[in-house]
């Protein structure tokens, strides 16, 4: 299977062997953050950029040649960093949560795409005009992404902690201690599951699906609403998800890291069971060790495709 991105060939999908599992792994998240330190006050300013991705270094156990050939073939088929493969944190292949179905689906329970006027208050309330209903479908525990404020603290991801009515909510800001009071701000938008979000609004894939999503679980953001779609991002849940039941359907507000790389649309699938990301090798060279009784040793490093 050859993967395409626009008009550019980005390599084919190679299947990684499933056994033996790695005996040692180092799994890490790389962030691109600019920092500037004042030489006069010592204060540090930061600027986050879009470059956020996982890296891993893994070691396989000693293997006899009949097993090692599977890994040799896989590594050679990767063609250095050209081709891609599905990969997951080797020490967290099974999630701790009890959600009992393969996939969840994205639900845009707020989707105010047209500009709206908002009031922000330092007590962490956000209020729209009382003749509008932008929060009619939002649930406590859900996440919203606000844009359009002149105050950076008011923009970005916010978790809903209380809902007064269809036009007033209380939030916990994800990027600030509190909101900044600001009245009659025109041109704002309130969205779900957008690029840059650190919280997802999800629902069970069917009314019979149920269970929990726990801190430390991984999720696979897939490429579409079709079951079995390839992964486009690998994220970790950073607090136990808020579970609500809405018209017989389990719904979840899920806090994640890293931030969402691209927006996901209504009913876009997010895989819970055996989630994986898309990775490629970090180097073009491959090697292995062997001794006089044909015990092979192999290790490699890989990086998430962005």
Sheet bearing the most strands, described? 6 strands, antiparallel, barrel
Helical proportion, percent range: under 10%
Rg over alpha carbons: 22 Å
**H/I helix tally:** 1
The CATH C-level class name of the largest domain: Alpha Beta
Characterise this structure.
The protein folds into 3 domains: 2-93 and 279-304, Phosphorylase Kinase, domain 1; 103-107 and 197-273, Elongation Factor Tu (Ef-tu), domain 3 (Beta Barrel); 112-191, Beta Barrel (Elongation Factor Tu (Ef-tu), domain 3), CATH 2.40.30. It has 1 helix and 23 strands. It has one helix spanning 65-77, and strands spanning 2-5, 8-12, 24-37, 44-59, 63-64, 85-87, 103-106, 112-120, 125-127, 143-147, 156-165, 168-173, 182-191, 199-204, 218-222, 231-237, 242-246, 249-257, 269-271, 277-281, 289-290, 295-297, 299-304. The strands form 5 sheets. Strands 7-14-18-16-15-19 form a 6-stranded antiparallel barrel. Strands 8-9-12-11-10-13 form a 6-stranded antiparallel β-barrel. The protein has a 5-stranded antiparallel beta sheet with strand order 3-4-23-20-6, with no helix packed on it. The mean pLDDT is 94.
